[in-house]
Amino acid sequence: MPKRTSKDIRNESRFALLRGLYSLRTATRQELAATTGLSFATISNIVGELIEVGVLVEAGREDSGGGRPVTRLKISPERGALVGVDIAETYIHVDIYDLSLGVIGKAESGLAIEENEPAALVRRVAGVLDEAVAAAGISRERLLRAGVSLPGQVDPQRGVSVFAPNWDWHEVHIQALLSDAIGLPVDVDNPLRAIAISELWFGAGRLVNNVATVNLGTGVGAGLAIDGELVRGASNTAGEWGHTTLVFGGRLCRCGRHGCVEAYLGVPGLQQTMAEVNAGHDLLTSDRQREFVSDVAKGLADGDPDCVELLEVTGRYFAAALGNLINFINPDHVSVLGWTAASIGPELLQVAQKYLPQEVLPSAGEAVRVGLSAVVGNAVTLGMATLALEGFLEQVGVPSRGPGARIAARKRAGLPANQTAGAE
User: What pLDDT is attached to residue 397?
Assistant: First the structure.
């Protein structure tokens, strides 16, 4: 494990403060110290730095109950806007966030599986971004940075898509292509990391420390947080639960292996299960994945027996796969999300919960709660916007106590050099 530097510790403290403030919405320095466990001196220093670059502003003063009034603080939504992009095999979704991480504009476009040439794909992203900016009613000059999620294995340090099996991508320098296409600094990562960050900041991770966030869609995976920390692994591929073996010698997975969890819980796997239940079912006349899942939801509501059997079989697979995950990492909470979960998540979980007790060790089963994620909106774009916020703060730098450094940091942040910050 690499040795943690003072800069690493500083960054962790800064983001502990921001997580606390996003949860509380407004807070005093004293409340932030109590929430984060950081010292009051550390909180005061970080608050000063964030005020310097315009990320924090005063939200009024209140009686402290004896001493001088204390200042309430909040994230400044007007400071600028962040972009979160969710590129999946079947769609491109873009959300524009103000700095308080509220969505102010969005746009989405379908994506055919063959539309995977890198240069053409980034042009599509730029077009969807233009639509989202128009929906937000802001100028592009307000955009600070973009976070872009891509399927497959991604190396965020190098800005490279290492391997995207559905697109046959190998070592594509996608970060540079995206930045050139949209005219912004860009951070790239895998959706599993994005959903884990969303759950840490805005979901179950606010209450417990060990969380697995399961994503169900075309692909399947799990974002992991252990002891409150995002787990990346040695090559940023931690959480590829979808490519663990569920059925020995089972279905061919798109990764080239057989019997993977994804081959049974990903939407193509659901389609294959339906073909095994009833090869002539009307739902199989279209290969459009979202339409298929939507039609399954309608079939369940109408009591279609084939849809009910599909749900039962898939729920059993889901229980077995969840059991392996729970037994291995012993989480406090498993949050389920993704566009499949958005359509049939409650029904699928109801079946899985029926079989889960026989799949988990008693102690692990007693310790864990499994449910749909409480994160509102697109968890992938939210997580990527959070990463973009981190990148923006790194980009503008952390001002030192010297006035020259403060002026330089404010200029990098695009703020007037002579604006004064709030006091205690």
Answer: 63
